[in-house]
Design brief:
By secondary structure, the chain is an all-alpha fold. It has two helices and no strands.
Length: 55
């Protein structure tokens, strides 16, 4: 697992925890949402890296 993957995992975890704290996600349906959130974070990081290289 490279640095970007670890950072994406950490960000996704923090987002999930925040959503659980505010009641948007419950611990019982966490699995349904984690993959989507993690995928969105990874996509955002990849797009940002591409834009940085293009500049």
């Amino acid at each position: 697992m490279d640095k970007a993957d670890k950072q994406a995992l950490q960000v996704a975890k923090e987002v999930i925890i925040k959503f659980i704290e505010v009641g948007r996600i419950s611990p019982t349906n966490f699995g349904e949402h984690f993959k989507t959130i993690y995928s969105d974070v990874v996509t955002t990081i990849a797009e940002n890296n591409r834009e940085d290289r293009d500049e």
